[in-house]
Amino acid sequence: MKGIILAGGSGTRLYPMTKVMTKQLQPVYDKPMIYYPLSFLMLGGIKDILLITTPHDLPHFQELLGDGSQFGIKLNYKIQDKPNGLPQAFILGEEFIAGEDVCLILGDNLFYGDIRFFKSAIAAHKEKNDGISGRVFAYSVADPRAYGVVEFDKKTKMVKSIEEKPAEPKSNYAIPGLYIFDSTAAARAKSLTPSPRGETEIVDLILSYKKESKLGVEIITRGVAWLDTGTPRSLLEASSYIGAIEERQGLKVACLEEVAFRMGFIDTEGLQKCIAALPKSIYRAYLERFLKEILEE
To answer: Which residue intervals define the domain Nucleotidyl transferase in the entry (predicted)?
Structure first.
């Protein structure tokens, strides 16, 4: 399976922070925001990843992440000149997808906790035994009226309905910015008609699978945190949350070098090379301690 991170957009809700730098490069506690969705895909075993961003921000991402080889992955880049809706990610990534299954995650969505739900969804999608070609994820929220809401059969995991910010929600499950589709996603995205706001809508792409009875849902298990960082308050809350976790445990969240090693993408020598390339910092000191623990085992 391939992965796409959509890290474009204007980020106007975070202005003036985003006047110079896109929101996906803003800090979430001690790391750029992009580290979190990237590490999430890596933890799911996805190593071939396309990052879609703006012409202005592309050089910054390339300077930060390179081609991904230091993490044992392959990072590709594509420019989105202007935001035309989430489905455009599949059109821009059609050549990259090359007939394979694909997972799309939004660059401002963070997940923390037991991600077995994600790994099992990937495994089920690869097996193709359930007739499901498109998968959305369901996250229980206190007030679903502020989100896209999914209603589904808990036994079959088939979607019954999807509504955008309904006044009377049919469930308390919101749809976060995480999707898994088969290789027809690009063709489906091309067939969509723009909404009144001039963009194609991800809901329409999702519903194209539902019309064919091929849309399933994966429940994000209790205890997993889903953090959206699109507003100043949510960005602050996400930073505070990650900071509290790291300070309490003494372990870093979304440390790409550590994730790469733990996933077996790089070996001890690769980890040493990563550390040697870092400047003296708290981040490097953490990885040096991690390496020492490994060597002492």
So the answer is: 2-241
pTM of full prediction above 0.85: yes
CB-CB contact of 163 with 148 (8 Å) = yes
Rg (C-alpha) for the chain, rounded Å, is: 19
- The segments of the chain whose pLDDT lies below 50 read none
Angstrom distance (rounded) from CA 166 to CA 141: 14
Give the chain's count of helices (H) and strands (E): 11, 14
- pLDDT given at position 105: 98
- CA distances to 38, 68, 69, 251 from 277, rounded to whole Å, are 20, 14, 13, 21
Question: How long is the chain?
Answer: 297
CB 229 within 8 A of CB 110: yes
Name, in order, each residue with C-beta under 8 angstroms of 89's C-beta and a sequence gap of 6 or more: 4, 6, 52, 80, 104, 189
In the block, tokens 């997993």 appear at 224
What would you measure as the largest C-alpha separation in the chain, in angstroms? 61
Can you tell me the distance from the alpha carbon of 153 to that of 160, in angstroms, rounded to the nearest whole number? 7
Alpha helices in the chain (DSSP H): 35-43, 58-65, 88-92, 94-97, 116-127, 185-190, 202-211, 232-249, 256-262, 268-276, 282-296
Token look-up 């990052």 returns 51
Provide the pLDDT for residue 10. 74
Residue 175 sits at the vertex; the CA angle it makes with 171 and 181, to the nearest 5 degrees, is 125
